[in-house]
């Protein structure tokens, strides 16, 4: 393809962060010549199938490039020659199925890489060899079924790994080794049904783990070995049916636990052992109709408990035990709550200031099943008759 000087002039614009080369949705089938003053390249929405060696040889000042929505099928190291300053590379929504060993080794400053929505089926050892500067890697929406041992072993600075909506069915102990700086891992929306003991043991800084929308039916404390720094844990929309008393052992710093939409059906005090520092508990839509006394007693520092979309008709005044939290928002929306004298205790403790009953999150009030047309605060609970 012959590219005229007029084409280059109209494609290169000066922006706040330097010169921007933008040629999107233009029907390009190959990379056009890139002016040497270019600092940003936008080539998304074209029909580029192949990148010749040296295509970017004059773009040594470029620090960010978008190649989304093209037709690339492979990634090789010789594609990036000349991009010595590139720190962000986005190659999303192509048809990449092959990533050669050391494919990004010629990009010494690359920190942010996204290969989202391609056709990668396996993460091979050597795929990221030489990509030492990576801090964020996104592999969402690929049909990945396996991660070879030591595939990430050279990514010592990686803090964020996104692998949501892949075809992973199990997490094995070696998959995330070599990632000592990893703090955020997203593997939600996969097909994961099992997690080996010690899977995250080489990720001591892991703070946020997203395991929602998988097929997990069993969890125990062996899964959390080595990640005592975990702060956020999301297990929504799995098939967890029971919680054991010691399953959270070692998660002393956990701030937020979400178990929404699991068929648990029953909760008790023993289920929260080891979670004294927890601030947010989401047990929305887990099928419970009754909360026994002292159920939330271990959660001495809890600030929010989400109980929406269950089958709860009433609440026992001793659900927090004798050692009450400082202040709690209790979300009860979309339950068949019977507003009667059994709930008079709520009015009393709300007056003391440590409990706030809401509908959803921290807003509004629940609806009474026995007085659906009346606002919660206008319903006569019969407290004066007790």
Short characterization:
With 386 residues, this protein is mainly beta. It has helices at 5-11, 344-352; strands spanning 12-15, 18-22, 38-42, 64-66, 74-75, 88-90, 98-99, 112-114, 122-123, 136-138, 146-147, 160-162, 170-171, 184-186, 194-195, 208-210, 232-234, 256-258, 280-282, 304-306, 328-331, 355-358. It has a 16-stranded mixed β-sheet. The protein has a two-stranded parallel sheet with strand order 5-7.
Protein topology:
Blueprint (H helix, E strand, L loop, with lengths): L4 H7 E4 L2 E5 L15 E5 L21 E3 L7 E2 L12 E3 L7 E2 L12 E3 L7 E2 L12 E3 L7 E2 L12 E3 L7 E2 L12 E3 L7 E2 L12 E3 L21 E3 L21 E3 L21 E3 L21 E3 L21 E4 L12 H9 L2 E4 L28
Parallel strand pairs: 2-3, 3-4, 4-6, 5-7, 6-8, 8-10, 9-11, 10-12, 12-14, 13-15, 14-16, 16-17, 17-18, 18-19, 19-20, 20-21, 21-22
Antiparallel strand pairs: 1-2
Radius of gyration: 27 Å
Binned strand content: 15-25%
The stretches of 5 or more residues where confidence is low (pLDDT under 50) are 1-10
Number of DSSP strands? Answer: 22
CATH topology of the domain at 1-111: Leucine-rich repeat, LRR (right-handed beta-alpha superhelix)
Shape: elongated
Mean of the pLDDT scores? 93
Percent of residues in helices: under 10%
List the secondary-structure elements in sequence, H or E. Answer: HEEEEEEEEEEEEEEEEEEEEEHE
How many H/I helical runs? 2
CATH class of the domain at 1-111: Alpha Beta
Could you state the CATH homologous superfamily of the domain at 1-111? Ribonuclease Inhibitor
Judging by the overall fold, what is the CATH architecture of the domain at 1-111? Alpha-Beta Horseshoe
| SSE class | mainly beta
Largest sheet, spatial ordering of strands: 1-2-3-4-6-8-10-12-14-16-17-18-19-20-21-22
Cα end-to-end separation: 87 Å
Major sheet details: 16 strands, mixed
